[in-house]
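Structural prep section.
Before we set up the soaks we want a predicted structure of the protein with copper (II) ion in place, mainly to decide which crystallisation condition to try first. Input record follows.
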Amino acid sequence: MAEPEDLRSQNGVLEADLTARDAPGANGSTLYCYTDAAGRESPTLRVKPGDLVILHLKNALTDTVAANAQSMPMHTHAASSSRDHGPESCGGGEMSAVATNLHFHGLTIPPVCHQDDVLKTLVAPGDATFEYRFRIPDDEPPGLYWYHPHVHGFSKQQLLGGASGALLVEGIERAKKVVAGLPERVFVIRDQDLVNPNAPPAKSEPVVPKFLVDRDGDAANTGTGFGKPAKDLSINYVPVPYPDYAPAMIEMRPKERQLWRVLNAAAITYLNIEVLFNHAPQPLGVVAMDGVPLSHDDPDGANVSWQKHLVIPPGARVEFLVDGPAAGEDALLVTRTVDTGPGGENDPNRMLARIVAKADAPEPRSTLSRSPEPLAASATPWLGAVAPVRVRRLYFSEKLENPEDPTSAVEFYLTEEGQQPKMFDMNASEPNIVVQQGTVEDWIIENRSSELHDFHIHQLHFLLIDYMGRPVNENFLRDTVNVPYNTGRSLTYPSVRLRMDFRDPNIVGTFVYHCHILEHEDKGMMGSIRVDPSATSNHEAKNGTHEGPESDAGNASRVAQRLVKSR
Ligand SMILES: [Cu+2]
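Run finished without errors. Recording the tokens verbatim:
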């Protein structure tokens, strides 16, 4: 299987054309990709800390796509709204299924026009080429990031079937000596509409669960690990269509150790990666999550977390060591089923690729430096050691547009406790949350719905402090995290506690946090946050109710209130 082609920075600059294109796919679906001037498809952008990135984005999307997208009822309200064409707009296009823009997922760059703004930037077909120009911060952790479109109301449509690519900040071997000299491979896993929507199940399936549809109109979670998936997958654009397909092939030299860098670029599909030799899961040595090397402060860079399977929510990345099979050994890269909850989509077990060990296998295109210069230790104190200035509680929830009508559309919300649940409004004049640059806050994210959600915030990383009420205090950072679904069997809602890092002056401005199941984001599960410069006075008073530091008494009274409400 071919890896995406690389575009490397030269003399501190990566300048490239990226043209967003579409083509009709199976069953009225649409395929998307980016091409550069030489026709390379959705290339991997390889940059170094401190590099200047200049991208010329051209929108070559066609009207066929708009027609498809507008046949989806939930998209029409967004399609009819257009953005403010005042001095604040950027790019100037109308919000529609064929407008596009770029988000640089995970990078700590400014949320402003021509850098990483998704609130005002729209490029329409026929518009002049739009220029992105930003500098990779000197202290950006080396690892796997990515780019994709982020037009509210239409992001799922564009991401499904291909509008995404990897961005690598080079030098992971400088932070993790353990990967020095290893061959590296990039795997971009995407999802797409089912290629064979009416196909009967494969004969090889051990169970044939009843086919049900969830509230989004996708194949519902069967809870069995089998059945029709909500979406098909692809790995580096090699399709994985249900029910019968030839898996991609990964060739390796026997027992060779490689660094695999896996991006879940799916719009709605969770991954749970395993490598099987003769059906037995093999240890995978995780060295980085969401672009950040594990134990960033570990001077030896020796820390590796060995796991048998890796859950990768949409938007997340995992970079790990793999030891190849022996010659002739039966080896597979698979994704195992993920329990998305009774309200969630079906993400069944699937084979992605066969791993074939051959003495003359070609080496991957890229090998990490054998004797890297160690990365300087970070000058910023470790996030886990910084006291939060406040605690906020946010929650995911869903509601029928008309509670009397079970067939009415579902509205999706991501709300700060104390505010009124509302679908995200592109035209809101005030952000949902205002914080001050230089501070650190703890956010408790609850899931009050019956399906799994996937919290993501632009511009920064956070530390997972508690998961489902249990302290975890991880030694790495994330920008994307799962919040398990509500079973209704507990007094408290499932939650995660995150230490949010607003210290970097680069992130001053307004940006968004949302569920990275893009179907949910498009239908409203998003909020906006403004990071004010540290010199200004604090804006907290403007921003409605907020909680002080957590206390047992506070928790108890919240539980009591909930009990009262539920009666
Ligand atoms: Cu969600």
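Observations: The first strand starts at residue 6 and ends at 8.
Flagged for discussion at group meeting.
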